[in-house]
Amino acid sequence: MVRLSIVAPIYNEEDNIRPLHEAITNAVRGRVESYEIVLVNDGSKDRSASLLNELAQEDPAVRVIHFESNCGQTAAIYAGLKQSVGELIALIDADLQTDPRDIFKLMPYIPQMDFVNGKRVRRQDTLVKKVSSRVGNGVRNWLTGDSIYDTGCPMKLMKREVADSYYLYEGMHRFLPTLAKINGFKVIEVAVSHHERQFGVSKYGVFNRAFVGLMDAIVIGWLRKRVIRYQIKGQ
């Protein structure tokens, strides 16, 4: 087992792959005793697969997982979590809008906390995206009974036991902090930086996930109300 796994889902990010690898490597080298970079190719149709294979040949810290077809962000994150071997697992998107160096803003909250969620306080997005995200987080919190400011922030850090506790369904990557709480773990949010996307385009529009996200939030709220809690007498 290594100390830190950095997991990133990849879908048609050919221009970001090498900058992503460079940014992660520069951020973690010399700051943790051991690490791995787990890059999950979610059925990309551009040159991402070949570039990922090149990286894996060049850098023994890189592990690549290739899906046969596009399965979505939840599946890619879930596969990365399950295939990783780190004591701690950091999640980050491939677009570099979040900074790998911010992993070490989250690290000090471990081990007191089990899951540290990034919170984008100065988002470099369009006004429409900012407003829709704020509204979406508000509606999700209302439906789930939670108080997470930025559940959609790609930057997250968790202990191995949190990752092992997950059994995810499609769309559930948006609720990882809430699911960690449901599973009995301690969660905190910490401010992280946010940058404009330099290469490629976002794979997620403002409206193409609104209805599905709403239904997912209803399901999470339903599950949270029905979670089983008990204490055995004398233990």
Using brief descriptors, characterize the structure shown:
alpha/beta; 7 strands
Tell me about the biggest sheet? Answer: 7 strands, mixed
Tell me the distance between the termini. Answer: 32 Å
Low-confidence stretches: none
**Mean pLDDT metric:** 85
Helix/strand structural class:
alpha/beta
Q: Please work out how many helical segments DSSP would assign.
A: 8
Can you list the strand order of the major beta sheet?
Answer: 3-2-1-4-6-5-7
What is the radius of gyration?
17 Å
Fraction in beta strands: 15-25%
Find the count of extended strands (DSSP E, 2+ residues): 7
- Percent of residues in helices: 25-40%
Order of helices and strands: EHEHEHEHEHEHHEH
| Shape annotation | globular
Describe the structure concisely for a colleague.
By secondary structure, this protein is of the alpha/beta class. It is built from 8 helices and 7 strands, in the order βαβαβαβαβαβααβα.
Give a written overview of the molecule.
- The chain is of the alpha/beta class.
- It has helices spanning 17-28, 48-58, 73-83, 103-106, 127-144, 160-165, 176-182, 210-225, and strands at 4-10, 35-41, 62-66, 88-91, 115-120, 156-159, 187-192.
- The protein has a seven-stranded mixed beta sheet with strand order 3-2-1-4-6-5-7, with helices on both faces.
- Strand 1 (4-10), helix 1 and strand 2 (35-41) form a beta-alpha-beta unit.
- Helix 5 packs parallel to helix 8.
- The longest helix has 18 residues, at 127-144.
- The relative contact order is 0.17.
